[in-house]
User: Which sequence fits this backbone?
């Protein structure tokens, strides 16, 4: 059984803004940006990773952007 995507039935979707930013200038926004986000979301903190994800999702909701 083949997936429909392999047979060409998949239309490309619009990339989220974060992905566009990461790919725009990889030397500036690629690894350095990803490392900063990783430290903020997974580094030492009084908040759990789940709480930080919730804060990010809520902030995205207020900013009317997908998370």
Assistant:
């Amino acid at each position: 059984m083949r997936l429909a995507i392999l047979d060409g039935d998949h239309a490309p979707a619009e990339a989220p803004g974060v992905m566009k930013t990461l790919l725009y200038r990889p030397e500036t926004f690629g690894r350095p940006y990803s490392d900063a986000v990783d430290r903020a979301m997974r580094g030492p903190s009084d908040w759990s990773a789940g709480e930080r994800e919730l804060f990010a999702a809520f902030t995205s909701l207020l900013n009317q952007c997908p998370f």
User: Anything to note?
Assistant: The longest helix spans residues 26-42. Residues 14-62 form one domain. The chain has a mean pLDDT of 82. The CA atoms of residues 41 and 52 lie 6 Å apart.
